[in-house]
């Protein structure tokens, strides 16, 4: 599943990446590559846990629209 991600620099160095549609799904790393790799692991665990507990996954299109709206409002 290709949910939109948000990446930003961490105050202490490195990066933080998160998937806003998956509450609490975020990862941190020293390099962008390391951060994105870790985010894939965390995303897999998040989805696995949701499915295990019978929770439905957020709609990808809805998630994309939310990120676009946030991006637009922050660029003004």
Distance between the termini: 30 Å
Q: What's the number of helices?
A: 2
- Named at the architecture level, the CATH assignment is 2-Layer Sandwich
How many domains make up the 3D coordinates?
1
Q: What Rg, in angstroms, do the CA atoms define?
A: 13 Å
Shape: flat
List segments where confidence is low: pLDDT < 50 over at least 5 consecutive residues.
none
Indicate the CATH topology. Double Stranded RNA Binding Domain
Strand-pairing-aware structural class: alpha+beta
Q: Tell me, what is the CATH class?
A: Alpha Beta
Strand segment count: 3
- Please bin the fraction of helical residues: 40-55%
Residue fraction in strands = 15-25%
Average pLDDT, rounded to a whole number, is 90
Q: Biggest sheet, open or closed, and with what strands and sense?
A: 3 strands, antiparallel
Précis, in short:
It contains two helices and three strands. With 76 residues, the chain is an alpha+beta fold.
């Amino acid at each position: 599943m290709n949910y939109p991600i948000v990446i930003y620099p961490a105050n202490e160095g490195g990066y933080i990446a998160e998937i806003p549609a998956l509450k609490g799904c975020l990862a941190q790393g020293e390099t962008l590559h390391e951060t994105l790799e870790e985010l894939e692991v965390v995303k897999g665990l998040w989805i696995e846990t949701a499915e295990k507990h019978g929770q439905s996954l957020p709609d990808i299109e809805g998630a994309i629209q939310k990120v676009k709206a946030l991006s637009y409002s922050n660029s003004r």
